[in-house]
Amino acid sequence: MAWTKYQLFLAGLMLTTGSLNTLSAKWADMFSAKGCHDDPDHAFSHPFVQAVGMFLGEFSCLAVFYILVCQDRRRPEPRMNRGQSFNPLLFFAPAMCDMTATSIMYIALNMTSASSFQMLRGAVIIFTGLLSVAFLGRRLAPSQWLGICITILGLVVVGLADIASGHSDDSHKLSDVITGDLLIIMAQIIVSVQMVLEEKFVYKHDVHPLRAVGTEGLFGFVVLSLLLIPMYFIHVGNFSDNPRQVLEDALDAFCQIGHKPLILLALLGNTVSIAFFNFAGISVTKEISATTRMVLDSLRTLVIWVVSLALGWERFHGLQVLGFLVLLIGTALYNGLHRPLLARIPWCAARMNLEEDSSDAERERLLNDGRVQACEDT
Predict the structure, then answer these.
(1) Which of 259, 262, 289, 365 reaches 20 to 30 Å from 336, CA-CA?
(2) How many CB atoms lie within 10 A of CB 185?
(3) pLDDT tens figures, 105-140
């Protein structure tokens, strides 16, 4: 079936904004500028300030949700499913997971390349799969277990590529590259906890995805903004790259932005792109399919890698190509991108129908739990 112009627009918007999100964050890290009190030029290393900007972008999704609600109310027959009423504090725990993982990943982005950063984020399917089995009672299909195993192999290959680049690339020390890669993988464990909690709450309470993202963005923005105050006084020594060697020096970040306004452009690019990326991703799932969203997310990694090479931000390594292909195969298997091919084989088609029925039953169970809980609350 041919895509409509609107569907093509959504796919292009998701691919573009998703790529810009990582590239703009990396671009900000590459700047050097003077700080406060005539400090000499130093690298813009402010991961927590960047994370605040990202949460501001997520928070804007809440505004988009209420705009859509207002537009829907003006229609003679409202069609938008706003979901059940729920306690917003349910999303506080996922928001804290998001805040912690995002901050760790922005620290890691200072230590490794943008393409490796994006590739290693594929580790999230390993931990999400395992946690969904443990806490949601989900049964993974054999193809998903195979996808997890292949993804682990891909992570090993990407890690080896980073070690090889650390020996030949002067932009990052080998120790920094290894530390950055490990931090990214550690962050994916936290992200997987966030995703499992989100899935349970979104299905159980039938929450609109934009509202869920916006609510988490609100919590993350408020909490992390307040945490910038004690971070200004926590001395961490050489772990930090700012002149005062504190956990986060927000004033130094603002001073550097004042001396080099292009940093603000990079930060705004990160904030705006994350907002549009979330909107486009949800719209692609609704208008096309979740499978298409996974394909576009994989293509985003390729775009980031190609642009980084074109801008001279990193060097070409054959192992990285192999790692990307292996990760792509693992992600495709886990997300069921092989199903259209296997659907042509009769006994495979019957097997997949059983798996889909099982998945639908799990979602219905979560929805029913939410309906029962809602009745008990009333």
Answers:
(1) 365
(2) 19
(3) 998 888 888 888 888 888 888 888 888 888 777 788
